[in-house]
Design brief:
8 strands, alpha+beta, Aminopeptidase, globular, 8-stranded mixed beta sheet
Amino acid sequence: MQPFALDDGVVHLATPTLDDVEAITAACQDPDVAAWTVVPSPYAREDAVGFVRDYVAPGWERGTVFTWAVRESAGPSGVPGPEGAGPVLGMIGIGLDDAPDGQRSAELGYWMTPSGRGRGLATAAGRLVVDWAFDPEGLGLARLSWEAYVGNWPSRRLAWRLGFRVEGTVRGQSLQRGVRRDAWVATLLAGDPREPVEPWPDDAPRVASLS
């Protein structure tokens, strides 16, 4: 599949390229990105080059992993070119399974830089990707999944805003740099509402918003 952009007048999603290597390298120095994702730590410029060249590009070519850089939109007039979008403020993507057409599922993942958090950009980006993933003219998925290491409340709050239902905590679910970690797991089906469907946990700590 050829890479394409998504834009809603608030946020602009475009495939990261080698022109974004310096920005990605800088973003991945953030301790929260390192703590809650599987990016290498410490993160070097060569890691950003490998991400763009060996992960993002092949994923689009195979039609199995779709990754976008999150930027502010140039405005409501339509999808701008790269020169019309702002700096990289985060990353969002989905990775598909190999189920038959009509039954396919994908996992949604994302991270945001400190300057991109708490501004509604992650929520807007998530809605664009979720809508495209379920659209019959897009991927026509039956299901999306989300998971995060236990304690990553900002990520969980964004998933909650998008309508994901937390199914539970799975011990040792995720592997981060060779170490097993417990994870929350949530799902969103094609026919589900795209808004919170369960109360926000009473015991959730007050944390800075990712969305």
